[in-house]
């Protein structure tokens, strides 16, 4: 639909209408096309403007062209300008007048011609014609003076005079049109009729005496229009029939028939107003309206077969038929006949709106329907079609609240017209919600329309609009995630669309969207619903037609989901059979993807197709890996992927899978090498994988350390640990500790494991400082909360309900710390007071409860602060670093703090106890009392666990050596 129509201007710019406005204007231009001319550039500018349909662009182009024309005319206008130069000036002046009077107001002229004009259009046309008329009158006088002079020169008589006479005739034709348009803009009846008489006389003179026979049809049309507006209906009928003769251009014939129908309608209205006997009047009026009906039918038939713009032609024909029936209904003396005409008018409008679901077309049409009702005080009492037009018409000045009220008024009315308009009222209510930006409400309204009126012509388009609205609503929730209920409504709207349209989804786009929304919903529902939703998603993807550009995408999503649909039990025959079926489908898909990537379907890129193909082979490899006899085949597929699918993002997934499987098999050395390669290729995705490998390395080193074999057997592991930790740490070095605390500690630990305690110590101290600051902040927050709670107890006074709520909160705080009320002095008191704070002694018990809370809250705060954990891993590393550096006092301090916070009995506890004892032996071997105390400590530990956590031999070795150093 062109811009003119989008703005409510249904008349198209082509055809004979443009010829009337432009061909007259360019008769001089066309005559000069073959010869160079000083005004050629200006002519081209005006011609381009005339062909422009966007009003603002045309206006600015015309301004530039008129300004250029004025400048050029002044430049040519000299005392010694020859006749040819004078002709050129006259041509330019004609172009100026035409641009100002006929091209600039073209849209307004067309709206007036096709029963769509407003009072502003009349003013625009009249004012423009007045300016053009003055220019043309002046031009006529100058041409007439030149003719008198040039006819005396026998040379000019044969050369320039004929051309000047043709130009004079063209100017006269434009003056006739200017008079007609001035009449349309007049407010005073006498003045209007005067200008119409001028138009009739000027056109008649040219019809009788004009030399340009090709202009005769247009002049007959002009005279017929002017006579119609002047009330000379019979004369107008004669001229319009002549203009519509079979040999006339098809567009001229159509416009002449349109005017003829309007003329007959207005003649019928005029006859109805004449004083006559009722029988005579009724007969004459009915006859004219019958003739008008035939003319309307002729126009509909003619334009239906020939119009280039079917929507514009349909709108004009519908407005013409409404004009006929609305006028007839007001003139009929028979109530039944008047009612039939009103029904026919409404039927024409409803049928048009049903044929054109484009909201822009509807608004343009309804704006015309609402034109006469706008500004009336009794708008709310209008019939339902008028209410709909007042709400839905282009340029409606009703606010959103009034629009909604008028549309809802239609829905509650029970007359036949209102009932038939209910789907349209719902349609515009939905658009009202959409215009306000409420896509969810609009989607719901469109869905209801499609559901309630499934047989209505709007139902398919309403289903499309519902899905589109919900799509926007879901997209708007991307950052936070669409709520499951909204996603379900979107799914329902898509299914409604697929159900309501005859050819709902030829490209498969909505079925693909349906599958994707089912997929997304599976992540938002309870476990029991996931399987059924996955089945629906697979079915939606499977329904995407093979000729769809998105078929490959849908097929890939189906393969991905099918993995989760395999039978339970990987050891079962059913699982193995289903898995191999899916493997074969993946291989077939990969083969097809490799071919399609060479010539991607529309809307897809080779890169994404290659990635899907790589993903299919990865899926096949993962399935084969779970079939033990084919495990090596699976790993071979993964190794060869980079060569077959270079650059595919899915290669990262394949590499990660390989590393995970190496870890599962205990091949830590190979996994470490693999993750280093992975980090070089995918640095942004490596952190999690590195941490997995590091965790395995730590566990292995802890085992070796526990065996006392760490230095002998873990050298390679230690090197791997340092390289991987450095890979994570180096990009973060220098950033705030909040961003790198965990990685810094890991790197320091790796340095320590590789006998680089001096480098590790500053990093560990930095981590300790950061952890202490966090611990202090946590303790401070606990103190502040305690003060807030104490203030609340005081403010509660004797309010038992508030005190009971605070008491319950206190007991919940104890439970979080793992403390039973009976194990806490204040907890027991508060529980008893809480139970007693009821009955007749409520006031006394409330006071007791308040005192218990005031005493108990600080104690609870201290327990919470004690529970704020220290960083055990960092303490252990600090202790080891100080020990490695020979700073035994500081090492012992860290070991002591660490062991105080550890629960006894765990393997880690016994490992740290052993390290603590070894540190004491190394650092204080010359201190006899210290060595004696060490032997005592080990005996006491043995009393807790005779096996000393499975490390008895190593503890015994320390005890034996300490005893020797203690002197026996």
Describe this structure as you would to a colleague.
The chain is mostly helical. The chain contains 44 helices and no strands. α13 (250-273) packs parallel to α15 (310-331), α21 (439-452) packs antiparallel against α22 (459-476) and α37 runs antiparallel to α38. It is elongated, with a radius of gyration of 47 Å. Mean pLDDT is 84; it is low at 1-9 and 13-36.
Question: What are the key terms here?
Answer:
disordered N terminus, 968 residues, 44 helices, 0% strand
User: Radius of gyration from the CA trace?
Assistant: 47 Å
Spans of at least 5 consecutive residues whose pLDDT stays below 50 are 1-9, 13-36
Shape: elongated
Which band does the percent of strand residues land in? under 5%
Structural class of the helices, strands and pairings?
Answer: mainly alpha
Instruction: Give the number of helices.
Output: 44
Major sheet summary line: none
Q: Roughly what percent helix?
A: over 70%
From the N-terminal CA to the C-terminal CA, the straight-line distance is 107 Å
How many strands in all?
0
Average predicted confidence as pLDDT? 84
